[in-house]
Amino acid sequence: MKTVALVSFVVGGLSLALGAQGPNSAVQAAAETMGASTIQSIQYSGTGSAFPIGQAQSPGGPWPRFELAKYVASVDYAVPAMREETVRRDVEFPPRGGGAGPFNPATGQGGMRPIPGDVVQAVTRDGRSEAGQIQIWMTPHGFLKAAAAHNAVVTPIKANGRTLHAVSFVAAGRTFTAHINDRHLVERIATIAPNPLVGDMTLETLFSDYKDYAGVKFPSHIVQLQGGHPTLDVAVADVRPNAGTVALPSPAPRGPASPAPVTTDLEKIADGVLFLTGGAPWSVLVEFSDHVVVIEAPQDDARSAATIAAVKRLLPAKPIRYVVNTHHHFDHSGGLRGYVAEGIPILTHEKNKPYFEQILRSRFTLEPDRLARSPRAPTIETVSTKRVLRDDSMTMELHLLRGNLHAETLLVAYLPKQKLLVQADAFHPRPGAAPLAAPPPFTVNLVENIRRLKLDVERVVHVHGGVDSLATVVKAAGG
C-alpha cells in the first residue's frame, strides 16, 4: 500500500469564483450538481481490468490485460492525499507480454497501480514531498476543485453533435482539460505527462453512468488511457462520500530541493563482463579488444548518461560500439534516447526498428532530454534470429528467443568463452518465495531455446540483477 501527499494543491473551502465567468459558469454548475462543494473525501471501489504501461507482446501492440479483482481508491481533498489499492490476476493462460505473473489464482498480486505523476516532484521547505498531483486532478471532483483554484477557462465546443464545455487550467507546468456535458457532469479529463521513451504522453480519463450517492454524483464506469492505450477499466460498485481521512506517512526528512544525482557502479561478472548497476533493470558491459558493447539501455536519459560516463571512466580508450536492446518494453528501452544522443548505434530485433524509428521522433516539450535539445537521427542495426559480434578477445552471439510470449522480439546474449547467457525477463529469481503451481512459461521457453540452440551455458545473467547457475533456471522451468 502506498500513499501520496500533495502539498501544492490549493484546498480548504472550495471557492468557485472564476473571475469574469461569474457564478453561472460551467464549473459552478458542475460543482453544484456533482456535490463538489460539500465533499471533503471520497472512497470508491470496484473491479475491472488493468493494463501495464508499455508491456505489449509485440512492438506497438496492445498492452496486456489483467483482471482487477480488487480496486479501491481513497481521496482526501483536505489533506490532500490519495491512495490506491489493487489486486490483479492473470487472465491469459499462458500470459503474454510484460507484467505477467504467474500469480496465485486465489489471491492474485496486491500493490499499487503506477500512474504518471505519482513520483516525487520536489521537496518543499518544510521537508514534505510534493507528489502525485495528477492522480487527484484526474478525478471528477478533484478536477473541479483544481479548476476553481487555478482560474480555469471555459469554452463551448461541439463533439459528436453535442454542445459541451471544455474547462482548462494550467498547473504543474501543463494544461488539464475536462469536458462537461449538458447535465453538468464531467465526462473526460485529459493532460500530458512526460515519458522517458515516448515523450509527451497523453493521459485521459473517461467517466460515464453517473449515480447519486447521498447528494454526490459519481461515475460507475471509469476508463483511463495513456498514449491512447487503456491502462484501467473499472466498474465502480461502491462509493462512500466523506469517508474519512487518508492516512499519510511521516513527513519526509528535510533535504535538498533537487534529487540526488544518478550514478552507475561496476560489478564484475566474469573477465571482460561487468554489471553496470543502479536502479532496475541494469546494463551489462562486454569488453572487446578496441571497443565495448553495452547490453540494455533501461529507465531513462539520466541513467544512460550515468552509464555512458561510467564506461568512459573505466575504459576511456574503448568507445561504445553498440547498445543492445533486448526487447521493446518501456523499462528496457527508456534509456535508448541517451545513446542516440551520443551517436551510438542501437542493435535490436528487426521488428523493433520501425517502432523505434517512430517513437524516437516523439515530442519532448515537458522534460526535454539531450536528444530533444540536440536532435540527431538514430542508427539502428538489426538481428533476425542470430547475429555474432567477434574479435580476437571476445565473441558475443545474439539470439532470438523463438516463441517467447513475454516479447516476440526478445533477444539473449551468449558469451561462449565465459559460458554466460545474458537474459531479460525470461527468468526472475524468486529467493524465499513460495513454490509456483506451474513453471513460468517464459522460463520454460528460455530453457527450450538454450537446448534448441545447443548453447554451452553454465551461468545465466539477469539484467534485473543477479547471476544464477543454469541448473537453477532449469529447475525453475520444471527440469
What does the model show?
- There is one protein chain.
- The protein has helices at residues 26-34, 133-137, 140-149, 301-314, 330-333, 336-341, 353-359, 370-373, 441-453, 470-476, and strands at residues 2-5, 41-50, 66-76, 81-90, 109-111, 120-123, 129-131, 153-159, 162-171, 174-180, 186-195, 199-213, 216-226, 229-241, 265-270, 273-277, 283-287, 292-295, 320-324, 346-349, 380-383, 386-390, 395-400, 411-415, 420-423, 459-462, 467-469.
- It is of the alpha+beta class.
- The chain folds into 2 domains: 2-241; 265-476, Metallo-beta-lactamase, Chain A, CATH 3.60.15.10.
- Strands 1, 2, 3, 4, 5, 8, 9, 10, 11, 12, 13 and 14 form a 12-stranded antiparallel beta sheet that branches. A 7-stranded mixed beta sheet has the order 15-16-17-18-19-20-21. Strands 22-23-24-25-26-27 form a 6-stranded mixed beta sheet.
- Helix 1 packs across helix 3.
- The chain is elongated and about 75 Å long.
- The protein starts with a strand and ends with a helix.
